[in-house]
Amino acid sequence: MDSTVSYKPARYRWTILALLTLISTFGAAIPASCMPVLFKEISEDLGLSLVQIGTIWGFTSLAGIFVSLLSGILGDRFGVKLIIGVSCLLVGVTGALRGLANSFLMLAFLVFLNGVARLILPVNATKTIGIWFRGQHLGMAMGVSAMGMGLGLMLGPLISASLLSPLLGGWRNVMFLYGGISALVGIIWFIFGRENHEYKKIARHPTSKNTQFKQHFLELIRLKALWLIGLTILFRGASIMGMTGYLPMYLRNQGWEIASADGTLSAFYAASTLAVIPLSLVSDRIGSRKAILLPAIILTMTSIGILPFAQGFAVWILVILAGITMDSFMAISVTMLLETEGVRQANSGTALGIVFTIAQLGSVISPPLGNSLARFNPGLPFVFWASLSIVAVVTLIMVREVRKK
User: Fold this and answer.
1) How far apart are CA 249 and CA 133, in angstroms?
2) Across residues 217-226, what is the average pLDDT?
3) Per-residue pLDDT reduced to its tens digit, 255-275
4) Of the four, 130, 254, 275, 380, which is 20 to 30 A from 72 by CA?
5) How many whole angstroms separate alpha carbon 276 and alpha carbon 326?
6) CA quadruple 44, 322, 339, 217: dihedral positive or negative?
7) For residues 35 and 246, is the Cβ–Cβ distance under 8 A?
8) For residue 208, is pLDDT > 60?
């Protein structure tokens, strides 16, 4: 049967959303979120310093600087089904190869390769949702996909070190397992994923694809809102990236049990997962994205800044407060971007690629820079990461959003 008429886009979009949620969990999230809780074991096995660990954690985002814009261009040119499927398979292969690393340089290189494959997914998954969901359900759909991301970010720290590593015989076998799961998800996407043929008809253009890209790129880089949204995500993401990579090791060094230290990071992501859909729905209902995003930055910034002064149960409270808006912030931010005047379906992949490229810069520099401050005081990195969000508040205030009724 001809695939162009074998399904109804209005109905099949929910299947697409379910598949993208699965990809967010096992393709984009778990391969990265498993790393912080395994760093202790990895550092002992490979003889890594705290700064080297921070550098490796930063390398998970370094790839995004090189691939985010390219991934948007590839999605616009070749279609999201092919790009997402191939990326999932590559995430599986490169993720499994991390288990073969025997030195700092080799692990950093393999983590970078895994990031290249993995960071193609968020741009194209977001573009896909923007194609299949338009209007009043866009924010909710972004929230559902972000919930899948949050679920993966929660499961990685929760089970990787305390359950899977002892069960499978070490961190290397954990990498092999996650690699196989990521590849399997890619195969499922190839079987059930679809292109939206209504969008393909709209997107046809008589000009060449090279000319079309140049036109899109020149139009987009002139958009002030695009740069401001990118800088907002950059500084806010740098704060989150640094904190999540350091928190489990910090708490273990403070005398916490392994399960409890790793559990705080899982609680961070669990709070985000539970809150992402309600907050996304609220942003749809009130018609303003900034009304959610500004309080989100301030809450996270305050919680991270106070964290080194807290003890015991107070640490759990602050971590949960910091995590409540993590996934919803990203979902609502990209929704605001797709609603920006000048961003259309035909150039949305390129727009997302530009913003994700800007955003990754902070996540690369933040972990090793923050970790290096621990030599003066173990709590000082948290203060540094919290201060980065001040810039995010300023840039977000300057964004002129398109309010929806």
Assistant:
1) 41
2) 80
3) 888 788 888 888 888 888 888
4) 275
5) 8
6) negative
7) no
8) no
- With tokens 């919930």, the residue in question is 147
Query: pLDDT tens digit string along 187-198?
Result: 999 999 887 765
Radius of gyration for the alpha carbons in the chain, expressed in angstroms and rounded: 20
Q: In terms of C-beta density within 10 A (0-12 exposed, 13-18 middle, 19 or more buried), how is residue 47 classed? A: exposed
Q: Identify the residue whose tokens are 């971007």.
A: 337
The residue-averaged pLDDT of 156-175 equals: 91
**Other beta carbons less than 10 A from residue 380's beta carbon:** 15
> For residues 319 and 290, what is the distance between their CA atoms, to the nearest angstrom?
23
Listed range (188-202, 332-346, 354-368, 382-396) with the worst mean pLDDT: 188-202
Scanning the structure block, which residue is given the tokens 């001809």?
2
DSSP annotation string for 34-66: THHHHHHHHHHHHT--HHHHHHHHHHHHHHHHH
Residue 255 structure tokens: 């005398």
In whole angstroms, give the CA distance from residue 279 to residue 257: 33
In whole angstroms, what is the distance from residue 290 CA to residue 12 CA? 31
